[in-house]
Design brief:
With 201 residues, the chain is an all-alpha fold. The protein contains six helices and no strands. The structure holds protoporphyrin IX containing FE (2 copies). One protoporphyrin IX containing FE binds next to helix 2 and helix 4.
């Protein structure tokens, strides 16, 4: 019964929003409907946590000299750990996913129109999250394995590195799909706005 009442209330609100949007009126939003953005914020905070612990580790002298000895920042497998893994977990996981949440929150506030698709917003989150976590993990694991081989038996590095291409391509593609879904959702929202602005009210 309670669920039914909630559904009626949610459906009424959704109809009112739709009507407001169709009439080119500002949409009244509640805090409730932005709750799906909490996972973006959690992922951003988690990424900054991982990225800054990573950052601190890579300035500890023992770790730093190991990284230097395996070719970090440029010239050897250490490149994958510092700067690539560190930069992307912070900039993609921390900054970009936070940027996505900001866009999804701000666009309706600024334009008075709802986001084109909440389903696409969910997709953009999950593809980007799975992409960045697998990208980071792959860079870290290949960096460590290839780095240790580089020191102990450099001739073996290519036998591991041949798996790097396929693994990093898959994770980078998942990441890119997340970015493009986000981009498409924003562009489609803008298209909705301009189409409604053109139509007679
Ligand atoms: C506790 C926090 C952090 C520490 C201790 C730290 C430390 C470092 C260190 C030691 C380097 C490597 C420099 C080199 O080898 O040339 C580096 C590179 C980098 N860091 Fe951080 N970092 C931290 C947080 C962040 C955050 C929050 C971001 C982004 C929002 C970030 C973005 C980058 C980028 C993009 C690079 C690569 C720069 C390049 O292209 O050479 N870092 N960081
Ligand atoms: C689909 C998403 C992305 C993919 C697949 C990707 C992939 C890459 C790759 C392969 C490199 C290494 C190039 C090299 O070997 O030197 C790179 C470098 C870099 N990327 Fe990304 N990237 C993505 C998104 C981003 C975003 C959104 C940012 C910033 C907000 C960023 C910041 C950087 C930086 C700062 C470097 C240089 C790191 C350094 O060598 O010092 N990337 N990226």
């Amino acid at each position: 019964m309670l669920g039914h009442t909630r559904c009626i209330s949610a459906c009424t609100k959704a109809r009112a929003r739709y009507a407001a949007s169709a009439m080119n009126q500002p949409v009244q939003t509640s805090h409730h409907e932005h709750r799906y953005l909490v996972k973006f914020l959690i992922m951003s905070v988690l990424s900054f946590f991982i990225g800054t612990v990573h950052g601190l580790l890579q300035v500890i002298p023992a770790v730093r000299s190991w990284l230097d000895s395996i070719g970090s920042p440029y010239g050897g497998p250490g490149h994958m750990i510092d700067p690539l893994a560190h930069a992307h977990i912070n900039l993609v996981g921390g900054v970009t996913i936070l940027g996505m949440a900001v866009t999804y929150y701000m666009l309706p506030k600024v334009t008075g129109k709802p986001i084109h698709s909440h389903r696409l917003a969910e997709h953009s989150f999950w593809w980007t999250t799975v992409g960045v976590l697998s990208f980071y993990t792959a860079l870290l694991i290949f960096g460590i394995i290839e780095g240790n081989l580089w020191l102990s038996d450099p001739a073996l590095v290519p036998s591991v590195h041949r798996f790097y291409g396929p693994v990093i391509s898959v994770s980078a593609s998942i990441l890119a799909i997340g970015f493009w879904i986000y981009l498409a959702n924003v562009l489609l929202t803008l298209k909705d706005i301009y189409r409604n602005a053109d139509s007679p009210s």
